[in-house]
């Protein structure tokens, strides 16, 4: 069940093509939590801000 | 359409290119298209064992990769030393040698060679004539197209990769968001390691273009 959930959460769709991304097995220098947090902030910044619309 | 791939060896891609700020936009584009097609980027800068001799580490990684991408565009002399750097042509030679002499497992190795201009290599590295050589003009979109089409040629016929235009669209979204991500990490872009770039791009794809 855990594997299914993990595979499902790595599913992406680009240009109508669906694939399941497998993780990068090599060890990095930044914790995955920090990287994920940075990614979420980047995505949040893409959303149009209500304050900036006049 | 769903992609499913078998053995790990066939999805490992050795990247042999300059690792500096000037080349970073092209390196990011290479890593992005590999991740977007579910391949694993590998390179000599992986932080594994600090005690491993560099050439042994390169040979080990080449042995683990069916595919490789070599950028040989850095032909100019170093500003300080006034000498050229030979690491990229050297590693290309190691990969081609492994493919020819490494035994049955390595005979289907394939290399994509990138340069900034077409046919320029004929002047400084003419022995590679006959290989798959493409010119990118320092344009990340061109790099994405070349890498995507080359991967497609090595993907089983019943599987489909995302098209260049779709990958470029997502790459541009990623690029727009990148300053926010880098700021949050409190690092300069050149301080982010190769593996961390790869993980960051993989996590971004999962979070930003999930089904």
Quickly list its features.
heterodimer; A: 54 residues; two-stranded antiparallel ribbon; flat; B: 211 residues; five-stranded parallel beta sheet
Explain the overall architecture.
The complex is a heterodimer of chains A (54) and B (211). Chain A is α+β, with helices and mostly antiparallel strands. Chain A contains two helices and two strands; from the N terminus they run αββα. Chain A has helices at 2-9, 32-46; strands at residues 11-14, 17-20. A two-stranded antiparallel sheet of chain A has the order 1-2. Chain A starts with a helix and ends in an 8-residue tail after the last helix. Chain B has helices at residues 24-36, 54-64, 87-101, 121-124, 140-153, 164-185, 194-208; strands spanning 2-3, 12-16, 40-42, 67-71, 110-115, 132-135. Chain B is of the alpha/beta class and 211 residues long. Chain B contains seven helices and six strands, in the order E-E-H-E-H-E-H-E-H-E-H-H-H. At the A-B interface, strand 1, strand 2 and helix 2 of A face strand 1, strand 3, helix 6 and helix 7 of B.
């Amino acid at each position: 069940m855990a594997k299914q959930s993990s595979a499902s959460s790595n599913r992406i769709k680009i240009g109508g093509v669906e694939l399941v991304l497998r993780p990068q097995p090599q060890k990095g220098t930044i914790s995955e939590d920090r990287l994920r947090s940075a990614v979420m902030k980047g995505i949040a910044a893409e959303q149009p801000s209500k304050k900036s619309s006049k | 359409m769903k992609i499913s791939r078998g053995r790990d060896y066939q999805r490992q891609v050795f990247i042999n290119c300059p690792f500096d700020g000037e080349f970073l936009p092209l390196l990011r584009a290479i890593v992005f298209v590999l991740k977007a097609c579910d391949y694993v980027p590998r390179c000599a800068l992986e932080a594994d064992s600090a005690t491993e001799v560099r050439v042994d580490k390169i040979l080990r990684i080449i042995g683990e990769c069916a595919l490789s991408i070599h950028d040989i565009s850095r032909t100019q002399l170093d500003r300080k030393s006034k000498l050229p750097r030979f690491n990229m042509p050297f590693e290309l030679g190691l990969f081609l040698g492994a493919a020819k002499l490494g035994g049955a497992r390595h005979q289907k190795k394939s290399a994509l060679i990138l340069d900034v201009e077409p046919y320029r290599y004929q002047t400084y590295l003419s022995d590679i004539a006959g290989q798959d050589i493409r010119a990118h003009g320092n344009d990340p979109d061109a790099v994405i197209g070349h890498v995507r089409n080359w991967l497609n040629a090595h993907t089983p016929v019943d599987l489909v990769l995302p098209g260049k235009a779709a990958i470029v669209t997502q790459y541009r979204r990623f690029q727009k968001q990148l300053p926010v991500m880098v700021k949050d990490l409190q690092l300069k872009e050149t301080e982010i390691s190769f593996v961390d770039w790869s993980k960051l791009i993989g996590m971004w794809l999962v979070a930003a273009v999930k089904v």
